[in-house]
Here is the input.
Amino acid sequence: MDQRTPFDEDFYPDILRGLSVYFDSPFVRNIARTVQRFRRQDLSIALNRKQIACKTWLLDELHRTYGGDYRSVWVLGGWYGVLSALFAEDQRYRIDGIVSYDIDSACEEVAECLNREGAMSGSFKARTADMLKLDYASGTPDLIINTSCEHLEDVSAWLDLIPHGTRLVLQSNNYFGEPDHFNCASSLEEFKAQAPISNIDYEGELALKNYTRFMLIGTR
Ligand SMILES: C[S@@+](CC[C@H](N)C(=O)[O-])C[C@H]1O[C@@H](n2cnc3c(N)ncnc32)[C@H](O)[C@@H]1O
Here is the structure.
């Protein structure tokens, strides 16, 4: 038998494929396929336990707040599409269409690989776009999610582009050490001041090892 080590290309993908069979999970199978195809270091960050904890927190609180049925959801700053893949895996949610927008063009094909079934059926799309330049007035989705508020210099200026009445899920954090974090918040109160929305239906914080994440669910 071959002597494999964790440095071999197939070592972790093989384990992930085994787990996908055991859990009968397209999500785990797509992770195995994606990490083998795209050897990007930050893919391991996008899938680390803190990133997944922030997103399962979002799924739980969004379901508690507004339920699981949506016609159209936009995920802004959607990175490699992890949140969209978790929506697809979660039996509580029925979403007709998700579009994941990111300004970084390298995200598109990674996100479509991670959301393979949705990309093939047309219920998931990854698009390269600056969220500050999207046309929010036409074809507004019934939910906009932005878990990358810390990456925007002015969250309030971005919110001004969004029609009143749109449902929103917003996350930020107090992880000031990251160079790409232009606009962290040191507390939930500070995040609320940065992101003025007319109605808040959920607000909370999640303490993680190196930082705390803040979340608001409400209406623009
Ligand atoms: C590194 S991710 C992580 C954010 C957060 N921790 C999460 O998991 O949602 C932030 C993403 O926002 C994207 N981004 C930053 N500014 C953006 C903009 N103006 N429009 C669209 N995407 C943007 C970056 O390219 C990056 O992929």
Notes: The longest strand covers residues 94-102. Residues 51, 76-77, 79, 101-104, 107, 130-132, 147-148, 151 surround S-adenosylmethionine (CB under 6 Å).
